[in-house]
Amino acid sequence: MQTHFSPDQLQRASVQEADRILRACVHCGFCTATCPTYALLGDELDSPRGRIYLIKDMLEKDKPATAAITKHIDRCLSCLSCMTTCPSGVDYMHLIDQARVHVEKTAPRPWADRLTRHMLRTMMPYPLRFRLMVHAARLGAPVLSLFPGKLAQRLTTMARAAIAQPLKTPGPASLPGTFHPKDKAAPPALRVALLAGCVQPSLDPDINESTVRLLTQMGAEVTLPPGQGCCGALTHHLGDRDSAITQARRNVKAWWALHQKSTLDAVVITASGCGTTIKDYGHLLADDPTWAEPAAILAALACDVSEVIERLSRANPLPPMPDNHPGRALPVAYHSACSLQHGQKIRTLPQALLRAVGFTVSEPADPHLCCGSAGTYSLMQPELSGQLRQRKVDTLAATGAKVVAAGNMGCIKHIGQQAQTPVIHTVQLLDWACGGPRPPGLE
Ligand code: SF4
Ligand code: SF4
Questions:
Q1: Same domain membership, residue 296 and residue 180
Q2: Mutation to probe ligand 2, out of 80, 88, 96 (largest number of atoms < 8 A from CB)
Q3: I need a surface site. Which of 22, 115, 156, 196 has the fewest CB within 10 A?
Q4: Residues 389-439 pLDDT 10s
Q5: DSSP class per residue in 38-81
Q6: What pTM did the predictor assign?
């Protein structure tokens, strides 16, 4: 694709990056076939190629985002399915990130949109504020639906989501501390830091409990250092790059202090949406004079929990479930979160681990298509998100499985609101198979 940035514009690193990405696109349109929003809407401007044209025009002319551009950029899920399909290796992720920042700074958004986005940015990444927000949404739910207008609609959607998700008390595996390998006589097979997450400890703390139990059983020493927090994905996807950088820097500081004390073998992430962002910290903090290098080193150490389990299992293979284990009779449908399959290119490992312990695993039709969760997308674009979820729930149900496994809490909660079967994190099923408690929902 030809670009027409001026020499002045090309002085800026961000423009150089956009120029490089845009020039890689050869307009072939292969990406449209696997784009969920194009599949639903059939509009070229809601396809990757259409959005690339819109972004090119907006950035080249350095013009404020119009209402139309904002609409089509906002509708993108950042699912990155287009990156998996693209034969030219177009780095759509960094392009849409830039576009979101530009839109956030320049778009004439209605005040209801601005207020909702501000609330999500400033409340969700902070566990206490998030809990307050959920309580407030529950209290306000009965009256909100009586009001007309977009803001009331948005808040009603949020309140409904809050009611559907009971708040839980974070367990020890979500709080700062170190967990030693079960076999105290042996040195740790791996020393890892574990990201507790921002929302996960309040909505599904059992995921972290299962992770610590399984990893320590397999010989790892697991530390949750003080000072870590939200990974920054949520604010970044809302176009607030500065807050994302602040949040990333805070995590890098926390993990770097630990890495200096006792060398880390991995930074473990159980929510694949966070994992995709953390694996990109080297890029996000590239201009930070102090933290660029530590960020790049830690990003290279970042692993999805399935990757660490696989590493540990090389020396200490996961034992198959005994024949009388109830998991033997429980067919599993594996939902591949976009951030795991497209963002991190982990496509077969979780299924292989589940099979290794004795689960029967199937996959739904169109596994590349997003479930519609996508961070705050389900709150900001409830209609599109709802349609994608219904598709996903139907294809998962068609497998005949009795439980759905997934590696991202956002997908788990989103699909779980509609599915007739329990939706459980992969690590909880593996932990159960290896002697841990039966996951909630499978009683
Ligand atoms: S990230 Fe997903 S929704 Fe956005 S353009 Fe690519 S495939 Fe479409
Ligand atoms: S598949 Fe890649 S090269 Fe082809 S139009 Fe899409 S982004 Fe451009």
A1: yes
A2: 88
A3: 115
A4: 999 999 999 999 999 999 999 999 999 999 999 999 999 999 999 999 999
A5: HHHH--GGGSHHHHHHHHHHHHHTT-PPPHHHHHHHHH-----H
A6: 0.94
